[in-house]
Specification:
4-stranded mixed beta sheet; single chain; two-stranded antiparallel ribbon; alpha+beta; 8 strands; 307 residues; globular; disordered N terminus
């Protein structure tokens, strides 16, 4: 890896880390390592305690995790690729479209693809979709800051040039810099801003969970909060192109989510969350008794609750 160090010099932070570790002849990307760590920590310490406390067994949660990770990664990568000014390069060399090891994920794509996946999974397995939506956003607020460490090592999410004390200058020749950026020049660490913003959202969501709100409340809160964070943070992003009225693609997406999607999700949640939360069913193993909500449904012979 060479002399990989973070060292403050000339009023900025110099980053000299090779994004790839070579174990013999095998290249291991820090970006992938951070994503794997993010998945592990977010599932083990965030998702699993949340869903098990709400009647969903570990096996079901693991199956949901696998499908959600696969589809969310594809969604994040595709949404990133379609934003690039050199989209033609990706189309001429399609393998680059799925080359996540090069860096480059757009989290809005992961959110949309991930929530769609858990919704289908919940319907197929007769589980409350809102429980899984809450689990998904818990996964996001724990995992995303860890994953952003990979972006910080790569250097693929940067803001404008800066001489602030926490500005970052990449000096390793293998840094994965975007076309806007150069080695040795200090930029605002937009990836670190992303991580901090997500941590703050997570603190708010865990405070909400302590209040014992209905299933789905965390997801309903997370969607507009994340959109607002992107409106703010992308003001510092220089690694993505501006497409209109001084706004980046992600900011336009954030506006659509904030003004249209978030109110729609809230209205659906208000109309359905009570029934779906009460109707959570987990497929029990052979010979095991049904969960309490399932027993209630069997006794009434219907899939909803009395209002």
């Amino acid at each position: 890896m060479g002399s990989s160090t973070f060292a403050a010099a000339l009023g900025v932070i110099r980053i000299d880390i090779d994004p790839v570790i070579h174990i013999g002849s095998i290249p291991v990307h820090w970006y992938g390592v951070m994503y794997a760590l993010a998945f592990l920590v977010a599932f083990r310490y965030g998702v699993l305690p949340h869903v098990e406390a709400r009647g969903i067994d570990r096996s079901t949660a693991e199956r949901a995790l696998i499908w959600t990770i696969i589809v969310a990664l594809l969604g994040a990568r595709l949404y990133y690729v379609v934003q690039q000014p050199n989209l033609g390069d990706y189309l001429r060399n399609p393998i680059r479209i799925v080359a996540v090891w090069e860096g480059g994920m757009a989290f809005f794509g992961a959110i949309v693809a991930g929530l769609a996946t858990v919704t289908v999974f919940a319907w197929h397995n007769r589980i409350s979709a809102w429980v899984l939506w809450d689990a998904a956003v818990i996964f996001a607020v724990i995992g995303q800051p860890i994953g952003r460490i990979g972006n910080i090592i790569n250097g693929d999410i940067l803001g404008a040039q800066s001489n602030l004390p926490w500005a970052t200058a990449y000096v390793n020749p293998h840094a994965v810099l975007q076309s806007c950026c150069q080695l040795g020049v200090a930029y605002q660490p937009a990836a670190a801003y992303e991580a901090i913003g997500t941590i703050l959202i997570g603190v708010g969501l865990f405070a909400l969970r302590r209040r014992g709100l209905r299933h789905g409340a965390l997801a309903v809160a997370y969607i507009p909060l994340y959109a607002i964070s992107q409106l703010i943070i992308f003001q510092f992003r220089a690694s993505e192109p501006i497409i209109g009225l001084g706004l980046h693609q992600a900011q336009w997406t954030a506006l659509v989510i904030l003004l249209l999607v978030s109110p729609a999700v809230y209205l659906v949640w208000r109309r359905t969350s009570a029934a779906l939360s009460a109707g959570t069913i987990v497929k029990s193993g052979a010979g095991s008794p049904p969960s309490e909500p399932a027993a209630k449904l069997q006794s009434t012979g219907r899939g909803g609750t009395k209002q």
